[in-house]
Write a sequence for this structure.
């Protein structure tokens, strides 16, 4: 679940971002992101703890970048095997 700003990059070019979906919803939707990412393998996950950013690297030089920008709301959440659950709290700190 993503509850923070994000952007989808391919070859270092932003294809679609959070602002596109919220400000130009007649042109951009989350279905656009789904169509780009569907079937791609996740190659790496980069976590930048000091700035609360999470970057998912997919095959074909495709990246989904998540960044926390709120002092009031939670940001991104990451769930994994064996009950793993990490999320950003208001202000950008972490909880698990």
């Amino acid at each position: 679940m993503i509850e923070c700003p994000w952007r989808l990059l391919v070859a270092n070019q932003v294809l679609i971002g959070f602002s596109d979906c919220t400000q130009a919803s007649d042109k951009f939707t989350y279905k656009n992101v789904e169509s780009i990412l569907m079937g791609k393998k996740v190659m790496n996950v980069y976590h930048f703890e000091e700035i609360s950013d999470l970057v998912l690297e997919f095959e074909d030089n495709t990246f989904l970048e998540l960044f926390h920008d709120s002092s009031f709301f939670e940001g991104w959440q990451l769930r994994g095997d064996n009950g793993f659950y990490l999320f950003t709290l208001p202000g950008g700190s972490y909880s698990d």
Summary: The first helix runs from residue 18 to 23. Helices lie at 18-23, 30-37. The longest strand covers residues 42-48.
